[in-house]
Design goal:
There is one protein chain. The protein is α/β, with parallel strands linked by helices and about 170 residues long. The protein is built from five helices and five strands; from the N terminus they run βββαβαβααα.
Length: about 170
């Protein structure tokens, strides 16, 4: 029997960070939980980042994942938005790193291609395929569905990443 691995997928955002937890046993995927960590836009940046970190710690403590996967972000036309997203992404990478988890990062197009089959899928296509791959799942919102897609992508690519790391 193959061992179970618990994977945490994360879709970073300052206002909403999606998270999704799946178990992987061989080729079998099982939905465990998903949700969104929200920060209050009325708070100072440092307080919002603290809210995000505390929310991630809660998810990590509750679900005890073995590995984490984070969607890479794209550069916005608005430099201020890009900087804020980068700060949130730093917290999203830091929290699982502090918990001692290995972390993989995936481009959005690879996540979409891994789950839907095309790299430019829209949100509705992603949600439909995640629902197909994880029967009975319901999402808090599109960010949670995207986070589950990141976890599913990691389940497909994690062995190749491990092989590359082992070859270094």
């Amino acid at each position: 029997m193959q061992p179970r691995r618990r994977l945490l997928g994360l879709d970073p955002g300052l206002q909403n960070t999606g998270w999704g937890v799946i178990d992987v046993t061989g080729n079998r995927l099982t939905h465990i939980a998903n949700g969104v960590i929200r920060t209050n836009g009325k708070y100072a940046m440092a307080d919002r980042l603290r809210q995000l970190h505390e929310g991630l710690q809660d998810v990590l403590n509750l679900y005890q994942p073995d590995e984490a996967a984070v969607e890479e972000t794209f550069v916005n036309k608005n430099p201020s938005s890009t900087l804020k997203l980068g700060q949130a992404r730093g917290v999203v990478l830091l929290a699982p790193a502090l918990a001692g988890l290995p972390i993989a990062e995936y481009a959005a197009n690879l996540v979409k291609k891994s789950v839907v089959g095309v790299g430019h899928a829209d949100k509705a296509q992603i949600q439909m395929m995640v629902s197909t791959l994880l029967p009975g799942v319901s999402f808090e919102n599109a960010d949670a569905a995207d986070a589950l897609a990141v976890a599913i992508c990691h389940s497909h690519h994690r062995d190749r990443i491990k092989l590359v790391e082992a070859a270094r």
